[in-house]
């Protein structure tokens, strides 16, 4: 109520966005709807203080409650992901990954990651990113026919280039990672193996995707995607990581602070703690399983309607559609779908013949709509609307009305 009086412009924009979210389908696979409890912690008084350092070893006074809180958050992360060490201070995924490089590499070392146009992330060694500017980046890809990670190529590249660090993880890969195989590849070359589980953290926590923990040395993640927390990041060190380097936990902590970041955002740490508690419940397990059921149902329905899916389907929360047989670019499809109330994003497909600003695909996923309680039946309806809008963008206005009315049955978390 204070905001309305004090800053009506911001108040109005928040209300408009709330209305947009309420009346449309958020289907960008890296997005979700956080709980009111998460947002309450995030909007708390904890934003007011600096807390440089770690519990018990801070550079500022007045932090006794912050110490308890950060310890609680770390313990929840350790228990949920079954790891001996967790750092909950990364501001988000890119800073988390930067700290991973800083912990185990020197500038100029060779590093390996999945190329961005193949579904990887900027921080996994893409040419315009720090990870390729400060390190010698070798990129692996997916198979040209199956679009699955090309483990053979990866093994060959790792043996040839002897990277210090291999990153595994993706932003547009609809299948399960073979962590065991990846662990063997890293071990055979002596590389550190880091799993960036940003997209699938909630699935891993809820048991809907195999955990990389037994096979990798380091796990990095964001906390706001399938994990459904506030925007934020975490880095975890596994038993295997501690065996490879008994100082790895300390190196990670030092890389975050004072190496890469200053004061942690403690309101964010509090909200991460809340989401980790939520993610440890049986209800979250059910949620994670439903995300995958919904993705698979959506994939099957879209295929029936003539859509080509990269890898022919999905094992996780996301789908990547190759629109080339639909005579529409990913960009135009994104615009038409947004007009209809379905938020997706244009995306390159592997070996895309079209440029990144007008790619051949769209990427979509089910984490947020599953949070609203939608199930397989609703996926059929959504697939139908997508077909209609993509084959005739002029139908978007009419579909928008139908979607707004449909959304009333599935309120945002209250
Ligand atoms: N921006 C995220 C995504 O949308 O996948 C990756 O960091």
Describe it for me?
This protein is of the alpha/beta class. Helix content is about 45%, strand content about 15%. The strands form four sheets. Strands 4-10-9-8-7-5-6 form a seven-stranded mixed β-sheet, sandwiched between helices. A four-stranded antiparallel β-sheet has the order 11-12-15-14. Strand 5, helix 6 and strand 6 form a beta-alpha-beta unit. The longest helix is centred in the C-terminal third of the chain and has 23 residues. This is Serine hydroxymethyltransferase.
Question: What would you say about this model in short?
Answer:
Helices cover 46% and strands 13% of the residues. By secondary structure, the chain is an alpha/beta fold. The chain is globular, with a radius of gyration of 21 Å.
Strands ordered across the widest β-sheet: 4-10-9-8-7-5-6
What is the CATH first-level class name of the largest domain? Alpha Beta
Query: Roughly what fraction of the amino acids lie in strands?
Result: 5-15%
> Main β-sheet: number of strands, strand sense, barrel status?
7 strands, mixed
Mean pLDDT: 98
This entry's quaternary arrangement is: single chain
How many DSSP helices?
A: 17
Number of domains: 2
The poorly predicted ranges are: none
Overall geometry = globular
């Amino acid at each position: 109520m204070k905001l309305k009086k004090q800053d009506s412009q911001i108040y109005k924009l928040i209300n408009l966005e709330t209305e947009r979210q309420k009346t449309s389908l958020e289907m960008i696979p890296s997005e979700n709807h956080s709980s009111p409890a998460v947002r309450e912690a995030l909007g708390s008084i904890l934003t007011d203080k600096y807390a440089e350092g770690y519990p018990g070893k801070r550079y500022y006074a007045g932090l006794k409650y912050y110490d308890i809180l950060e310890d609680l958050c770390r313990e929840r992360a350790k228990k949920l992901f079954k790891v001996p060490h967790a750092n909950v201070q990364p501001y988000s995924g890119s800073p988390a990954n930067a700290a991973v490089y800083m912990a185990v590499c020197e500038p100029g070392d060779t590093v390996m990651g999945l190329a961005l146009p193949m579904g990887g992330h900027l921080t996994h060694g893409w040419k315009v990113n720090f990870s390729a500017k400060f390190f010698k980046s070798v990129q692996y890809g997916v198979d040209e026919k199956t679009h699955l990670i090309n483990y053979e190529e990866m093994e060959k590249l790792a043996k040839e280039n002897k990277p210090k660090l291999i990153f595994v993880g993706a932003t547009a890969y609809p299948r399960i990672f073979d962590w065991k195989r990846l662990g063997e590849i890293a071990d055979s070359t002596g590389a550190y193996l880091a799993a960036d589980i940003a997209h699938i953290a909630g699935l891993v926590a809820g048991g809907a995707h195999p955990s990389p923990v037994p096979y990798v040395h380091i796990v990095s993640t964001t906390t706001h995607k399938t994990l459904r927390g506030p925007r934020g990041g975490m880095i975890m060190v596994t038993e295997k990581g501690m065996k490879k380097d008994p100082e790895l936990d300390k190196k990670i902590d030092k890389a975050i602070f004072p190496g890469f970041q200053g004061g942690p955002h403690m309101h964010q740490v509090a909200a991460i703690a809340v989401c980790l508690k939520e993610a440890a419940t049986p209800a979250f397990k059910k949620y994670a399983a439903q995300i995958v059921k919904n993705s698979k149902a959506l994939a099957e329905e879209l295929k029936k309607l003539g859509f080509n899916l990269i890898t022919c389907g999905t094992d996780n929360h996301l789908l990547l559609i190759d629109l080339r047989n639909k005579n529409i670019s990913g960009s135009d499809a994104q615009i038409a779908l947004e007009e209809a109330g379905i938020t997706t994003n244009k995306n390159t497909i592997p070996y895309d013949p079209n440029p990144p600003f007008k790619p051949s695909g769209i990427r979509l996923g089910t984490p947020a709509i599953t949070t609203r309680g939608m199930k397989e039946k609703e996926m059929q309806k959504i697939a139908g609307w997508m077909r209609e809008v993509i084959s005739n963008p002029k139908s978007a206005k009419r579909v928008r009305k139908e979607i707004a009315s449909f959304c009333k049955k599935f309120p945002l978390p209250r």
